[in-house]
């Protein structure tokens, strides 16, 4: 019978190593659907996402305002990203689509790698997919 080393300080994660942070939901707050908007549509979508998350009582994703995701022609724009996960960029989102976007982000957070089956994605995200980018660890392999 082999014995494994007893757990001790050398096997414990460092004190600075906490739980893996939740994936991020970046929301472009500069997106606008017209030049004469009193409040930018991207900001409205961001604020609606924060409110929807509070109503849902979930901390599955971290909602982060971003200043341009270089997808300005297909506003409003968001991105889902996190360590060891695929990154997804979406556009053409309406400011009042927060519930569906949050639903998609929570589904994204529930996966190990960010890959949500197509049929399980909210319709607005199926239509608004702009790009997907492999996890960083994959791109660093020789
Ligand atoms: S202003 Fe929103 S993507 Fe550029």
Keywords for this structure?
Thioredoxin-like_sf; binds FE2/S2 (inorganic) cluster; five-stranded mixed sheet; 142 residues; single chain; globular; Glutaredoxin; DUF1636 domain-containing protein; alpha+beta; 5 strands; DUF1636; disordered N terminus; 4 helices
Write up what this structure looks like.
- The chain has 142 residues and is of the alpha+beta class.
- It has one domain (24-139): 3-Layer(aba) Sandwich (Glutaredoxin).
- Helix content is 26%, strand content 16%.
- The chain has helices spanning 41-56, 98-109, 123-127, 136-139; strands at residues 24-28, 62-66, 78-81, 87-90, 129-133.
- It has a five-stranded mixed sheet with strand order 2-1-3-4-5.
- The N and C termini lie far apart (39 Å).
- It binds FE2/S2 (inorganic) cluster.
- This is DUF1636 domain-containing protein.
Give a summary of the structure in a few sentences.
Helix content is 26%, strand content 16%. With 142 residues, it is an alpha+beta fold. A five-stranded mixed β-sheet has the order 2-1-3-4-5.
